[in-house]
Design the sequence.
């Protein structure tokens, strides 16, 4: 009886390998060996490596968007608390692997941003979708007087997550999440309208 291959398993395995090794350092044969599927089965799902990379980026994008919706739309908490809870969740995720591998969207944005237009565009689309969730939460915080209105919610969303992505790169070099925590501590000190709110809870 022939084994039926689950496309989601292939995506999960491929995401793990490319996040660790990079896009250019990963060949289709690496994916085939790790997922134990024949080449023909792979190409039944994906016409090319680029289209496979697109699916991986979309997968991580959807996963983070779902996490954002769960945490950032929780109206039982104040907006700044929601933002902190979201980034706490990410830090715990990266802590488990000593910050070695980072985010696929961040990694491929850096590796392929000026090189493969298709994947650069898909990575950017995931980032912009995340910004919508962040901006909505920030806007709620501005309405409640928690978050500065010196900049728009969209500008602050980009400020927060662009700095987080940069710190993630540094964290990969140091093999720890200290740069992420320091960046978030400083960023939350900057965006908080009322400093006594005290959203500098990350231990450095």
Sequence:
């Amino acid at each position: 009886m022939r084994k039926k291959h689950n496309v989601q398993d292939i995506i999960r395995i491929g995401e793990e390998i490319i996040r660790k090794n990079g896009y250019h350092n990963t060949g289709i044969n690496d994916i085939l060996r790790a997922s134990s599927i024949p080449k023909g089965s792979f190409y039944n799902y994906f016409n090319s490596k680029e289209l496979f990379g697109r699916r991986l980026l979309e997968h991580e994008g959807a996963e983070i968007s779902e996490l954002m919706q769960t945490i950032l739309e929780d109206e039982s908490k104040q907006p700044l608390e929601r933002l902190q809870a979201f980034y706490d969740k990410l830090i715990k995720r990266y802590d488990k692997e000593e910050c070695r591998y980072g985010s696929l969207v961040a990694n491929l944005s850096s590796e392929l941003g000026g090189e493969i237009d298709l994947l650069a565009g898909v990575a950017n689309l995931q980032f912009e979708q995340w910004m919508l969730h962040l901006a909505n939460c920030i806007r709620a915080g501005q309405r409640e007087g928690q978050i500065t209105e010196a900049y728009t919610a969209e500008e602050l969303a980009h400020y927060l997550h662009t700095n987080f992505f940069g710190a993630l790169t540094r964290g990969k070099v140091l093999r720890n999440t200290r740069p992420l925590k320091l960046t978030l501590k400083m960023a939350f000190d900057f965006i908080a309208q009322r400093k006594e709110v005290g959203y500098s809870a990350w231990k450095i």
In short: The first helix runs from residue 7 to 21.
